[in-house]
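hey so i finally got around to running the thing on that chain from the lab meeting. sorry it took forever, my laptop kept dying and i had to restart like 3 times. anyway pasting the input first so we r on the same page abt which one it is
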Amino acid sequence: MRVGIYVDGYNLYYGGRKACGRGTPGWRWLDIRALATKLVAEQAQIWPGATVHRIVYCTARISGAGNPSGAADQDVYLKALLASRSVDYIEFGSYISKVIKRPLATPDRRGRPVTARPAWPIMIQTQGLAQPAATFIASVGTWEEKGSDVNVASHLLVDVLTDAVDAAVVISNDSDLRMPVHEAWQRVPVGVVNPGGGYTAGALSRGPTSGAGHHWWRSVVAADYTGQQLPDPTGGYTKPLGW
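ok and heres what got predicted. didnt touch it at all, straight out
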């Protein structure tokens, strides 16, 4: 059984930061192939004879202008992944920086935004009349990755529909992948791996026997990150300081 592995790099990174701690060393130099091999081997009972056939890593390059040290560290890691064959292919999206305007808000108990309104000592008046329903507008800078989910979906569907793989593992908990994952479920066994621990997004959950059957779900924990690290150095590249 040839298994294709489709990784949302940013989803995996933020999952590791949540599981291991942002400032904690020992998890960022992750060996994607070692992790994928471990995940697939755990399913030997329902996926007998399964082997990792292809690993596609989807990410976007950090802006060197806004974060030169982060961009340099990422570049070293991506080169190490390819040099060591920890991944077979890297698909790049975009890293967007821009200024946006949004209503000022605070979170409620469930983390949903509550728009801030004028209250003492900050009051808004128009021609001497109070405006209790006025909205404060904040101008903020944003830096975000774009395209990784689309690239994961595209590679997954192309490989499944062209019979390039017999099964697939999607490493992401992005509910935007609902449609491509559902289509893959109809055709091949699929493993969905949640990088951040906790519950898998409802849109990526389904009965294990639906469609092609033999589907499974797994959450990645701190030990998965720290236990599957690339050698240092690897492929001529040295792990960045603090990683």
